[in-house]
Each structure stands twice: as C-alpha cells, then as structure tokens.
Write a structure and sequence with these properties.
Chain B: GO terms for molecular function: transmembrane transporter activity. With about 650 residues, chain A is an all-alpha fold. Chain A is built from 29 helices and no strands. The chains are: A mainly alpha (about 650), B alpha/beta (about 325).
Chain lengths: ~650, ~325
C-alpha cells in the first residue's frame, strides 16, 4: 500500500518541523514578554479610520437606482411572489392560496414518491402535516416558497459554475477564492446594501439567501468532477468519446452522489438564512423567531425553529433519495401507478381549492403552544440544573486557554504577530502557505480593525480546533456504520438548520454574555457540516481497500488511521475548510451574545449608518482571516508527499 | 410494496371522497372587500422592539377599523426603514429615537421624509442595576461610588476591571467615553443584543449576581423587573457636543414620528391619524405588556386597549 511508504516519509520529516514550530512559539512568547502592549493598533468601539468613513460614503453612492438591478429585482420578485401565491398567501381574489394544505401535502408526497421512494413520500406527508399541527402552516409555506425560489436560482447558477470549475484548473482557483468570499463575508455586511439595490421585499431576501447558499453546490460539484478516477476518463476517451460525451456519460453520472450532497448543503444553507433574511422583512418562520426573541420567548422561537428543521429534513431526505435512485426507464406497471398517483394528487388539489377544511389547516389540532411550553420547561430545567457548572466550565476554558491565546495575539505588536504567522505558514506549507498569509495580514492591517481581528482570530482558532476534533470522531463513526449514520443525521440536520437565534437565549442563560458563549454556538453550528463531509468521504473509500486491510488482520484503529483517513484525505481537507468557514460565518451571531470584536463591528455597521464603513471593513477582515487560515491548512495538507500522489484529475484535460 | 401503496392510495381517495364532500366551501363566508374608501394603502415599518410594536398595533388597528385603510407592516431595522423612505418602500415610522444624522440626510438633504410630531412617549437611556443590588448597596446609584464597587462587577470578559455591559448596537452609546472621562475603573463589554441584556438582568436578579448595564425606558421588561438607574452627572444642553469629551448623562429623548414626503402630501386621512397620534409611556407599556407578557397578538392587544381608551382614540380621529 502506498500509504505505508508515505507515512514512513512523514515520520522522518515531522519531528523536525515540530521542533521548528516549537522553537518559533517559544521565541514569540519571549518577545511578547518584552514587547507587550506596543503597536497593538487597537480602535475604540465608536472610533473609525479614514478608510471606514470613505466606505460609508460609497454605500450611498452605490445605492442609486439602476435598470440592470431593477430587471433582476422584478424577475426574482415575480418568481417568489408566484410561489407564495400558489402555496402560501391568499391570492387572485380568493381568501386562500391557489393550492391549500391538502393539495401541497399530496403533490409533495407524490413528487417524493416519483423521484425518490415510498418511504420518503410518507416522511414528506407526515413532515408537512406536522408543520400544520404546529400551527405554522402559512409561515412555513412562506418560508418554503422563498427557499425554493432561492435554491432554484442557486442551482441554475451554481451547477454550471461547478462543472466549469471541475473541468478547468484556472476556473477552480478563481472559484475557490470567490466562494470563500461569498461564504465568509457576513450576510449582515451586504444585507443593508442589498435593500438599496433591490428594495425591501422578497427579491432582496432571496438574493441574500442565494449568495450564501450557492457556494456549497458549486464547490461540491467541482470537487465531485475532480474526484472521478483518471482511469475512467481515460477509458472513455480511448473509446473515442468527445469531451461533451465524457462529461455527460462518465463524469456527471459518476459524480452524482456528491453533487446531491452539494444540493443538500445548498438547501440547508438556504434554510439557515431564514432568520437572518427576516431582518429585511423576508416573510415566514424567521419573523416568528425574531418576534419571539424580542420577549425572550424560547418556547415559541423553538417551535418555529423546529418547523425549519422539519422542512430541512424533508427536503434533505427527498433530494438524497432522488440522488440514490438508479436512472432507468420506468416499467409499464410503474407508469400506470405514477399516472394513478398523479390523478390522486390532482383530486387532492381540487379538494384543497373547493373545501375550506382542505384549504386552511384546521386550527383545532394545534400542538404549537404545547411544544412551546415543553421547550420552555426543558430549557428552564437545564438552566437550573447545569447553570452553576456551565459557568465554571466557561471560566476554566476562558482563563486557561482563550485569554492566554488572545493576550498573545492582541498584545503583541502587529508586526510581530505577522512575522510569526508567516513563518508558521512557511514551516507548515512552504511558500504556498506563507505567501497568501503575508498578503492577507497586510490587507488586515489595512482594514484598520487589526486588534478586533486578533480577538476574533483567537476565538476562531479555538472553535475550529474543537469542531474538527468532534467532526472527525463523529464523521468516522457515522461513515463506518450505516445505522449510526441514519440515527445521527436528524441531529446533525437540526444543529445545522435550527436557527442559532433559537438557542442563543438558553446559551446565554447557561454561559452568560461572553466569548465562550459565541464559541459554543459556533461549534454547534459547524460540527454537522464537518461530520457529514467526513462521513461521506469515509463511505467513498472503496470497499475492496478496506476489506484488503481487514484480511491482513488490521485492527479497527489501524483500518481507520492507515487506510480510511488517508484515502479520504481530500474529503477531510474539505471538511476542515467547511468547518472553518461555518465557524467564521457565526462570528456575527457571536457578536450578538458577547463575543464583541469583528462580529460586533459588523452588527453595529448594519445598525448605524455612520459605522457602515467600519462594519464593511470588519466583514472583509473576517473574509481575510478565513482565506488566510484556509490557505495555510490547505498548503499544510498538500505538503505531505503522499497527498501529491492522490491528487487526481489535475491533468485530466 | 407498490401493491400496498396502491391499495393505500385507493383507500385514501375513497375516504376523502366520502368524508370530504361535506364542510364549508372556499369563498362562502367571505367578508365584503375591506379598504378601498379614500384611505388607500400605506407601508408601516415595525422596528424590532415591543414598545414600537405597541405603537404600530394601535395605529394599524385604528386605521384599518375606523378609516378603512390597508396597512402593510414591514419588519425592519431602524436604519433600513430610513433607507425605505428614499426607495418609497416605507411611509410611516411611529417611534424614532433621535437619529439627528439620519434626519439631516433624509429630511433636509434628500427631502424624502418629513417629521410628524411627538408620540408623547419619553425615552430614557442610562446605566442600570438589578433591584437586589440597590437593597444591598444603597449608595451604588451614585456614579461617584461606582469605583468602590468595581471589583464586584469583574467577569471573565472584563480583564480585571469592573464590567459595564452594553447592548444592541442600534443604539448610540457614549459609554466608552464616559468610562474614560469619569475615570471609572470599568471596561465596556459589548453584549451585542437586547436579548443578551435582558437575559443577563434576569440571571443577575435571580442568582443575586452583580450587573451594571446600559438599558433604556420604556421597555416591556420593566413590567417584569424594576431596574434601578444610576445617577450620572446630569445632562445639560451641549454637554454631549464633543463625543470624545462627554462626561454627562444621556439626554432625555422625545420620541417622534417620521413619514415619507409622498405620504404627507397624499391627503390621506391616515396621515392625519398618524400626525395626531400621541399617548403616554404608561399607555405604551400597557399594550407592550399585553403583547410581551400576556402573549396577545398585536391586533388583539390593540383592540383591548382601544376599547378601554375610546376617548383618546376619538381625539386622534378628530371626532
């Protein structure tokens, strides 16, 4: 096995690198004692730099009406309003939507059955009906309409871009950079300007969701195409396939399951934007969550959050089932059944247009208040029982790890931190790591929020380390065991799509307003995506490889560490990257619970016009931190010689 | 499996056909189309706090019920709502806290908005402590004693000094300057949201933890907990002219209404209603309590209050 020779080589190199890193850190510590407090570039909360004030002025200039944006706005508005009219809002002179709840449930279940299987059809029917039972039918349908609109547009744009980035190395490099920007630039930064371009309404909300939700599908489509074994492509080409034939008959079919993971992630990301988009009046469940938070009503917020999770699970399972379904022409029997089912769905739609009970969800079966009360009680119980203990954990972690790390980063002169980070990047990933690090650090100084960026960096590093550790353990576990996977998945979906706003209040009660609270929220949000990608990677390891290892008597641990993890390396690098990006995308939410620093700057920029420029600069600083950390980890992963050998498809075209 | 599914489908269809054909039909109980009269439609921004929602609920209820207007409520942050005056997406703001810079920009420079008078509600901003602290340390309400108690307020976030917890970034704060200019041994820690502030006060009162934080009135939370304000050096006109040198309390705010120029010129009776709308802190707190504590919908809360205060409402309508 190649990995054995590979790991021998690493073992020769690693200690030397480790020693150098250690020496570097000790030197930093020594320098910190001497130079503490000099050139820290700190900036008060209401203070701004010239760049910030200039950016503030630009925001006004940008907001002038423009035919191009108007056209986009009208098109997007019409798409979303159409979807809303069909399933959510009273429309076309009728007191109810075009299709009532029974019709929506029937059509959704039918589609789930036709494209997936009967299991997901039942899940769909049960899930959607549950939304009605929660007393949130209309809100859920508003959210569904907006999400469908955003996801459709995201796929329309994202899949072609993903294919392009999968085929061309240059496009891949550009795309990675742009996607990092789209995913890490906090939504708050472009939320206010978007309302200037696209006015207040569904268009701005949809486009905000689109910007945040499109990257996963582009990234994973590209990743999938690039992971197709070179032999398959060569085989196809040696048989005389043209480029487009190779793409359509070999590359795309072979990447389908990963592309579907991308579509899943896009849907999940879109649903996680529901509450944020509500800040610019996006209709639906997000409004319910925000309204409940004004009065700290955890129960009602949880009920609405639960509805978002249910929607997410239904959409996730249906797309997954559709992705797993083998493509073949239907038998006559199936065609007849499909026809009958379609007829049944149409009958249900007719009912839902004719009778009130099928149009509006009956309000006498409303479990919403009960769910709310139960959630409130559970939260209160958890707070009472664990309250003291959790504050202890917070203080221990803050005093023991976070404060020293933050002191080292914030109190050192900026040039010292820069030199150390660049040197560290060089040791870990040679010039591939050092060069981007140097550029990012330079720009970071330029943003004028260096000090806040260092505070955020300390929290981010800590949160990411925890996320990767937890994600690897859970991911390997789920990847090796189907049952664990199916059991753990709803929990992961809940963690990823339950709006962080819902668990902020209980977290605040458990940990108070602090940086630790923000770290905890970020971990909850970022672990699911890391776990899912790791599990996907582990599962993609060829069965034959694992069996070969088993047959020579390897222990489970040996199989994991010597076979599965090394083979799944590419997926793990991606998982680290995504974990980091998700942590960074929570920086602003963290700012709402006491993390301060960049997150607070961004939120303040959104709320106060004179701080807009500073908020934008802070948003860019978050992006720069993301790009820098990502490039260093990528370069470090690339450094090991074994990785070189597993890079496939670079010379495919 | 498909057999089972087929029979299940047939059974469901049958059941639907048998039971479903009873029941009310869509459109049978439809009320006559509301609105239309001379009032038309106006867009009302709803800022994210309960006091504002109380204003919005009552005005929307009266405009709909008595004038037959159609009110479109839009849930927006203050800053976005101001932008909405220039894009034509917002017509009415029913509770504006100061924002002199925005008034200058949208009323004086762009001329897309006009002031529509006071709401009668007085806003107070300041530093507050939970009630238990005042019982235990009666002299804490004087700012001069704050340094004496600084050690009490230490937390994991405040770097060895006392913690002064700040709130929602929407509000202008002078706290960093105040701490510096009053030579207080405190550090301003940003909680980042009103939710975090209220949760902190709840926790502080319940577990007898010390807390000093930025807060404001009117606020529904005062129905639950009567926070006590710290007396800072009193405000005098002009003492806040230079933001860096501020060493006095926050000014009292006269909360006012802003409407779009377009709406003001429309001659709609709704504009007269908005212009005449004024009530007191107690009125607003009452409606806010209906919404936040008694969990009424804004509309039901407004109906309840209007029925109890018909004379006030009549004055707004010029009856």
């Amino acid at each position: 096995m190649a990995s054995i020779t590979g790991s021998v080589e690493i073992r020769v190199r690693r200690p030397r690198r480790g020693v150098l890193v250690g020496v570097l850190l000790i030197a930093w510590l020594a320098a910190w004692f001497v130079l503490r407090g000099i050139d820290t570039l700190s900036l008060g909360g209401q203070e701004t730099t010239r760049l910030h004030r200039w950016l503030t002025e630009q925001a006004d200039v940008l907001g002038r009406g423009n035919a191009f944006f108007d056209a986009i706005r009208i098109a997007v508005d019409q798409l979303v309003v159409l979807l809303q009219n069909v399933i959510a809002q009273p429309s076309y002179g009728r007191p109810v939507p075009v299709i009532g709840w029974l019709g929506v449930v029937a059509i959704s279940a039918y589609l789930a059955w036709a494209f997936g299987n009967w299991k997901v059809a039942i899940l769909t029917a049960a899930g959607l009906s549950f939304l009605g039972v929660q007393g949130l039918w209309q809100e859920s349908m508003d959210t569904l309409a907006l999400t469908l609109g955003a996801v459709l547009l995201a796929l329309l744009v994202g899949i072609p871009l993903g294919i392009w980035a999968g085929l061309s190395n240059r496009a891949f490099k550009v795309a990675t950079l742009v996607l990092d920007l789209m995913q890490t630039l906090p939504t708050f930064v472009y939320l206010a300007p978007l309302t200037l371009f696209f006015a207040i309404g569904p268009a701005a909300a949809t486009i905000a969701t689109l910007i945040y939700a499109a990257p996963p599908v582009v990234r994973l489509t590209a990743h999938a195409l690039r992971s197709v074994p070179a032999e398959s492509v060569e085989a196809a080409r040696s048989l005389g396939s043209t480029r487009s034939q190779t793409l359509l008959k070999v590359l795309l079919p072979m990447s389908r399951s990963t592309v579907v993971v991308g579509i899943n992630q896009t849907i999940m990301a879109a649903l996680s934007m529901v509450t944020v988009a509500a800040l610019i009046d996006a209709p639906g469940l997000g409004q319910t969550v925000l309204k409940a938070l004004q009065t700290l009503d955890v129960g009602v917020a949880f009920n609405a959050g639960l509805a978002i999770v249910v929607l997410a699970i239904v959409l996730d399972r249906v797309t997954t089932a559709a992705g797993d379904r083998p493509w073949r022409t239907a038998s006559i029997r199936r065609k007849v059944l499909l026809g009958l089912g379609g007829l049944g769905a149409l009958v249900a739609v007719w009912f839902s247009r004719t009778y009130l009970w099928a149009a509006e969800f009956p309000s006498d079966v409303n479990l919403g208040p009960r769910i709310a009360v139960a959630a409130t009680d559970v939260t209160a119980w958890v707070q009472d029982v664990f309250g003291g203990f959790t504050f202890g954990v917070r203080d221990a972690v803050t005093e023991g790890v976070l404060n020293p790390l933050q002191a080292l980063l914030t109190e050192s002169p900026w040039w010292l931190v820069s030199v150390v980070i660049v040197a560290l990047a060089f040791l870990l990933g040679s010039w591939r790591g050092a060069l981007p690090a140097a550029v990012c650090l330079g720009l970071l100084v330029g943003t004028g929020v260096w000090y806040d960026a260092m505070v955020t960096l300390a929290s981010t590093v800590l949160a990411t380390v925890v996320v990767v550790a937890v994600g690897l353990v859970l991911g390997v576990w789920a990847g090796r065991n189907r049952r664990v996977d199916s059991w753990i998945r709803p929990v992961l979906d809940a963690g990823q799509t339950m709006p962080p706003f819902v668990y902020l209040v209980p977290f605040l009660a458990l940990f108070g307003t602090s940086r630790f609270t923000a770290i905890a929220a970020a971990v909850v949000f970022a672990v699911p995506v890391t776990t899912k990608i790791v599990a996907d990677g582990i599962r993609a390891v060829p069965v034959a490889t694992v069996e070969a290892a088993n047959s020579v008597g390897s222990s489970s641990w040996q199989v994991i560490s010597k076979v599965q993890l090394p083979v799944a390396r590419r997926a793990i690098t991606l998982a680290v990257n995504q974990g980091l990006i998700y942590v960074l995308s929570m920086v602003v939410v963290g700012g709402l619970v006491g993390a301060g620093a960049l997150g607070y700057d961004v939120a303040a920029g959104f709320a106060q016009s004179e701080l807009y420029g500073k908020g934008l600069a802070a948003g860019l600083a978050i992006v720069l931190l993301g790009v820098m950390l990502d490039r260093i980890t990528q370069a470090a992963a690339r450094r090991t010689p074994k990785f070189r050998r597993t890079v496939r498809g670079d010379d495919k075209w | 499996m498909t057999n089972k599914l087929r029979s299940a489908g047939v059974l469901t269809a049958l059941a639907l056909a048998l039971t479903g054909c009873g029941g009310a039909k869509v459109g049978e109980t439809e009320q006559p189309a509301a609105g239309a009269k001379e009032c038309g439609t106006f867009n009302l921004t709803v800022s994210p706090w309960v006091g504002y929602e109380a204003n919005a609920a009552v005005v929307a209820y009266v405009a709909t019920k008595d004038l037959g207007c159609k009110v479109v409520k839009k849930n927006l942050k203050e800053e976005i709502a101001w932008q909405g005056f220039s894009t034509g997406e917002v017509d009415v703001n029913l509770e504006n806290w100061g924002h002199e810079d925005l008034k200058k920009k949208y009323i004086d420079e762009q001329k897309v908005a006009v002031a529509a008078g006071s709401t009668g509600v007085k806003g107070v901003i300041g530093w507050y402590v939970p009630p238990w602290m005042v019982q235990q340390y009666p002299d804490i309400t004087d700012w001069k004693n704050l340094n004496k108690y600084a050690a009490l307020f230490k937390t994991s976030e405040s770097g060895g000094k006392g913690q002064l917890l700040d709130g929602d970034p929407s509000y202008v704060t002078n706290d960093e300057a105040l701490v510096k200019n009053l030579a207080l041994n405190y550090k301003v820690v940003q909680s980042g949201s009103e939710t975090a502030l209220i949760q902190a006060f709840r926790d502080a009162e319940k577990n007898k933890k010390p807390l000093l934080a930025y807060f404001y009135e009117p606020q529904w939370f005062f129905n639950e907990l009567k926070l006590v304000k710290i007396d800072l050096p009193p405000y005098k006109a002009g003492c806040d002219a230079d933001p860096a040198k501020i060493a006095c309390d926050y000014p009292p705010y006269d909360l006012d209404k802003i409407v779009s120029k377009k709406f003001a010129d429309s001659g709609s009776p709704a504009y007269d209603l908005v212009k005449k709308f004024a009530w007191t802190n107690e009125d607003q707190n009452q409606v806010a309590k209906y919404i936040a504590v008694d969990k009424l919908t804004p509309d039901a809360a407004a109906e309840k209050w209007v029925n109890e205060n018909q004379t006030k409402v009549n004055a707004w309508l010029g009856k």
